Amino acid sequence: MTPTYTVGVDFGTLSGRAVLVRVSDGQEIASAVHDYTHAVMTDCLPGGKALPPEWALQHPQDYLDVLGQTIPAVLKESGVPAEQIIGIGIDFTSCTVLPTTRDGTPLCFLPQWEGTPHAYVKL
């Protein structure tokens, strides 16, 4: 029988991590970390607009970058073919709120909202 695997992805405050685990015994096969490009935005938005005091925002592009970097990295490190991955689990720090359109597009990805703090992820 061909072994199967699952991927766990944890989105933290400053980075995201992925781990590849063999389903049959829970053995960790590979892991990878990607630091967020935008970190925690406390002073200004990416376009330079200043934030009021005591704001802590994240950019959802960082989450997409984690997926695009860490999952290929654990597959490469392990040599496991993607076809043997049967599941993925996602975890976020605390309660992460991301305002989106009906189709799931983050509001901060839209030109009319990219300068609005409430369009970003709140910590």
Instruction: Spell out the helices and strands N to C.
Output: EEEEHEE
**What top-tier CATH class fits best?**
Alpha Beta
The CATH superfamily bears the name: ATPase, nucleotide binding domain
Q: Please name the CATH topology.
A: Nucleotidyltransferase, domain 5
Query: How many DSSP H or I helices?
Result: 1
How many structural domains in the coordinates? 1
Report Rg. Answer: 17 Å
Distance between the termini: 44 Å
Overall mean pLDDT score? Answer: 95
The shape is elongated
Low-pLDDT segments, ≥5 res:
none
Number of strands: 6
Estimate what percentage of residues fall within beta strands.
25-35%
Which strands sit side by side, in order, in the main sheet?
A: 3-2-1-5
Label the structural class: alpha+beta
Which second-level CATH architecture applies?
A: 2-Layer Sandwich
Give an overview of the whole structure.
A hairpin with a 3-residue loop joins β1 (5-11) and β2 (15-22). Helix content is 15%, strand content 28%. It has 123 residues and is of the alpha+beta class. The chain has a single domain, classed as ATPase, nucleotide binding domain (Nucleotidyltransferase, domain 5). The mean pLDDT is 95. The longest helix is centred in the middle third of the chain and has 19 residues, at 60-78. The strands form two sheets. The chain has a four-stranded mixed sheet, covered by helices on one side. A two-stranded antiparallel ribbon has the order 4-6.
